[in-house]
């Protein structure tokens, strides 16, 4: 796999070729990755997978017309064909008055920040197998666990580079390590499944395999013999595993594309309260060894910590350059892109800040409600904010989690849900998006 210097050179070279072939502007992305994955089941090795590959994507502009092409073939002949095809396609494409590269005067200059995203601890397949076996053994040792869907361990390394005809060329390397276990509990015909998983940039930060396995087993056993909920309005408490999806819906609604198209339930919300006072949503692309940390965005702009919501008030849209032009604003450094196509927007390390209620208190105040640990379906309308999803979890009884329940639907409107959030004080930074335990009062619950 190429190192960062080689990847940056590869991206810059294809941009130079495109300009020589008649493009008025161009940018290119080079992405390479190598991964090793090991899976086990019931104490036996099931699979060892190793993969390595690279892709190069080129976007060219001829006037206000653009086209994007990509290839996994690094040969000179393939690259020459790629450039020729891209320029020819751009000349025939429809005009787009908003498309174009990021403003040259906004590009990141100088050395990118060092974020400690790459580990030099490359585990052997044996080490990954041993970790997966240890996780599964711990899960199977939990009383009540009856079967295993398997456990897995993985290690990966990737390099990502971006170059533009306006003078930007940057690259960074990242590693990833993961460990998971999934088991079943209960008797034949009434089994319940659950899992536990952890992922990190640095191997030394990965949870102990026994801890992951034990958590998977305990979660599965707790779900055995679920009952039914009564239908009606009640408090809904979201486990952090699923509560993070509420922030995902919020971010989708404030992306520049949705605002420019006027297809967002938060269309007129900028500068107004969308969360209760005291709650904030923060994005930090510079978090050391963060799962979504990055030194620059998908257009070569510098990135920095952002208060997306401050004390309940929405502070900003998330804008790439095209959406910013359309809205008459400036890009916010949230552009993201893959090898193919134009940039979109995404956050980096996102979290909900400001929760101060003890979990015990939050549950006690949700007496008679439901604690949700699993969400199913995609019943969310980003235009109206209407929200309806299948769920499973536990009754809240006597201020604590009671009997398991399943086959019910929770419904509401996202704008009302966000305004009525109560956040606990148990925030942990374990994912790309992190939230504490969350409660929304008065949601509609319908039992299946």
Question: Roughly how many Å apart are the termini?
Answer: 51 Å
Fraction of residues in H or I helices:
10-25%
Run of helices and strands: HEEEHHEEEHEHHEEEHEEEHEEEHEEE
| Structural category | alpha+beta
Rg over CA atoms, rounded to whole Å, is 24 Å
Shape: globular
Biggest sheet architecture: 6 strands, antiparallel
Number of strand segments: 19
Q: Low-confidence spans: pLDDT under 50, at least 5 residues?
A: none
Beta fraction: 35-45%
- Tell me the domain tally: 2
Strand order of the largest sheet: 3-2-1-4-5-6
Organism: Sphingomonas rubra
Domain Metalloprotease TldD/E N-terminal: 26-90
Protein name: PmbA protein
Domain Metalloprotease TldD/E central: 121-223
Quick tags:
PmbA protein; 9 helices; 448 residues; 5-stranded mixed barrel; Metalloprtase-TldD/E_C; metallopeptidase activity; 23% helix; Metalloprtase-TldD/E_cen_dom; PmbA/TldD fold; 6-stranded antiparallel sheet
Short overview:
With about 450 residues, the protein is an alpha+beta fold.
What would you note in describing this structure?
Residues 121-223 form the Metalloprotease TldD/E central domain. InterPro entries: Metalloprtase-TldD/E_C (IPR045569), Metalloprtase-TldD/E_cen_dom (IPR045570), Metalloprtase-TldD/E_N (IPR002510), PmbA (IPR047657), TldD/PmbA_N (IPR035068), TldD/PmbA_sf (IPR036059). Residues 26-90 form the Metalloprotease TldD/E N-terminal domain. With 448 residues, the protein is of the alpha+beta class. Strand 9 and strand 10 form a beta hairpin. The chain has helices spanning 4-20, 76-92, 125-140, 209-222, 240-253, 256-261, 321-327, 359-364, 414-419; strands spanning 25-41, 44-62, 65-71, 145-164, 169-185, 192-200, 232-238, 280-283, 306-310, 313-314, 335-336, 344-345, 350-353, 370-376, 386-397, 400-413, 421-423, 433-434, 438-447. The chain contains nine helices and 19 strands. The chain is 23% helix and 36% strand. The strands form four sheets. Strands 3-2-1-4-5-6 form a six-stranded antiparallel β-sheet. It has a five-stranded mixed barrel with strand order 7-14-15-16-19. The chain has two domains: 4-220, PmbA/TldD superfamily (PmbA/TldD fold, 2-Layer Sandwich); 226-448, no CATH class.
